[in-house]
Amino acid sequence: MAILIDQIKLRQIEMPLVHFFQTSFGRTYARKIVLVEVISGGISGWGEVTAGENPFYNEEWTDSSWLILRDFVAPRVIGHEFASAAEVGERSAHIRGHLMARGGLEAACWDLEARQKHVPLWAAIGGGAHKEIACGVSIGIQDSVDQLLGKIDTEVRAGYRRIKIKIAPGWDVNVIREVRKRFPGILLMGDANSAYRLEDWPLLAALDEFDLMMIEQPLAHDEIIDHAELQARLKTPICLDECIRSAHQAEQAIRMQAGRIINIKLGRVGGFAEAKKVHDVALAHQIPVWCGGMLESGIGRAANIALSTLPNFVLPGDVSASKRYWKRDVITEPVEVSPNGLITVPEGPGFGFEVDHAFLDSITVRQETISKP
To answer: pTM for this one?
Structure first.
């Protein structure tokens, strides 16, 4: 069934977080999220742009993604006939960067195609290897170590299977030492979000004693070569995040032994088509992958669940329960995690949840519709 989009609706929502989230980039209290709705023959598909409020994780932010979608991506997609959603990304491939903006629309087209075919999104992308998703949590930098330990205790009691804590210079070795004293047996990792330089390698090597699953993206967002040198000096596996934006970069990084694990984020690589290619490259080289999070609403969270059903997603990801972030989510039934740390993959068409339209309208701060000429 061909895809011919009649309308594209952009919507920006604002949602306060239940608790602030702090990384080496700064502290976030609320999310400004751009949602993309694509409409064909009266059927809607939904996608989420995972860019943050500021251009710190990468070059994108909420306002830039709105302009790129409205002025450059939507005009190239609307009214064009695609054999499948897999072709949508190529239509805007000549736009340099802006993968999160482009990926939000691409994900919406996959959701649309799945709804047209009356199949779950995970089936449309070729997933389904996992019927339940193992869940981890990401805990930001806190005001004190005691506050961090309390949050970890809460999440461990809730059943989460892996704890990720954000680290940065001054909030690293001593903090992780205290965490390990309190929780000697948990699966634990540190996420640096590019906060270190290669000359910091002795400090990062000091983390080897704590039996971490991985250190995520310790060096610069666009750095692969120095990661290879760093990995050779560490026992702890490096997980690559920001510097992997394509399957080609994943292949390069693996060839250089720049890391032993890859985090795949749907927006960071521009959507499902490229995410599947990154997954396949890693699988061919026996490099495990997991699904990272970007403080998504239920729409983006549901897309991450679908992505995580691909076979090489063998490590617990950042796909956690809606209530960890939102008092009320934009889907009528929130994403829930079982007491043993699992999410059951939905079987309904598309991303498998119903959009809460009334609530969505109440938190919308701007919207715009692009129609076929």
So the answer is: 0.95
